[in-house]
Amino acid sequence: MDENLPFGSLALKPELLALLKEDGYERLSPVQAKAIPLLLKEKSVLALAPTGTGKTLAYALPILNNLKNDGHVQAVIMSPTVALLSQIKEVFESYTSRLGFPLDAVKAIYSQKDFTKSKPDIVLLTPALYPSLTSHYPVDELTYIILDEGDMIAFDGFKESLMALKKAKERHQISFFSASLGVQEIKRVKSMLGILELVDVRQTITNQSVSHHLVAIHGQKKAEALLNFLKFHPSNKTIAFVSSKDELVKVKNDLLKLGKKALMVHGGLEKRDIKNTLAAFKKDDATLLLASDYVSRGLDIPEVETILSLDLPDDSQYYFHRAGRAGRFGNPGDSFIFYSDEDEDTVSKIRDLQRRGVSFDLYILSANGLKQSSGSYQFRNLGKKDRANNEKLQKEIRHAVNLNRSHKVKPNYKKKVSKAVDRVKEKHRKRVVLTNIAKSGGNARDFHFDDEKKRR
Known about the structure:
Layout: H1 14-22, H2 30-40, E1 45-48, H3 55-65, E2 75-78, H4 82-96, E3 106-109, E4 122-125, E5 144-148, H5 150-155, H6 159-168, E6 173-178, H7 183-193, E7 197-200, E8 210-216, H8 222-232, E9 238-241, H9 245-257, E10 263-265, H10 271-282, E11 288-291, E12 306-309, H11 317-323, E13 333-339, H12 344-355, E14 360-366, E15 369-376, H13 384-404, H14 413-439, H15 452-455
Parallel strand pairs: 1-6, 1-7, 2-4, 2-5, 3-4, 5-6, 8-13, 8-14, 9-11, 9-12, 10-11, 12-13
Antiparallel strand pairs: 14-15
């Protein structure tokens, strides 16, 4: 089927087409155009498409179209996170309620206690709970098993669930939806789950509606830089990602000290707290969400315009999932990365993103403004001057150690040496930062370093 056709071109029931029209859906996205006809024929599909292109409706519509309310489970949808599970539930319930199905037609299983005596037609659960499904609900009429964000299920440690799925492939059709999968992984998934049909509509790594930017923060701490950024770049909804839970909590606490409250979500929170926090973020008066990569997959909040990466994940693929939280369904969005030239780890990760085809422009952030540089940005190679700077730093460190060295073991000797080395590194960092500010067109007077005595 050709792309960009109207939903009316599909063999869907008139009442379902009427609801799609009521919701403002007019034309099929590429993944919907290719996956829906196959799923309507109850064929198994491996579907790959960028984030924000309508993958949920691509599998939800065939299920809803063929759904019967007969007390038997007809569809099982698996999601790796509770946040995505709740979102999928909302999508299904928005249609089942208007199609006349009972309230318990869609059942979300968040823990073992959620397996009740209800008779759902559609069951949503996390991979860890899938092996318990057949002992609670009849599955003799099960037609669809859907793995949403399937790469996380297949390759992120759900071994017991995968064993159960391998057995299920002999009796049920399994379909797999994801935004990212390599050539070898595609072969593995098709073989492992018995999938024959491949739908791959990825033309770019992320949605073309998302623009990518670097923000040079030059010595500012994450919370301080975030506050300055929001002051000069206000947004309807902003999600700021931090890679580790501990650092995420630190940023939230630092923001509070600066007078800014923010919602926060990470995988270590109680499921109820995650659900309530995301619901609060969707409300009009909540504009900032601090998040770990737990919510970088599948979270669909159309009002999100801006994504911030206060640091970058070790796996660059997660950056693309972060960026995909903006630019949903073709709407424009922006993804910003905070960095400093002296942060070699972040610079290396940004270079990797550039090699993967991401084009960045550059902003300079200070307490006095957010200034955009002209053109796309390329990191300079490590030249003679950079190597000379590194050699100078190592020489200064050796000199500081020698000054504090003693042939006799004295109290706090190691601590004194460590402090001396830290002071040398800090002076070197200041020197590099101020040089980079000047080179990038910023004003050194806009940037302030903590008083050295206070840090001690």
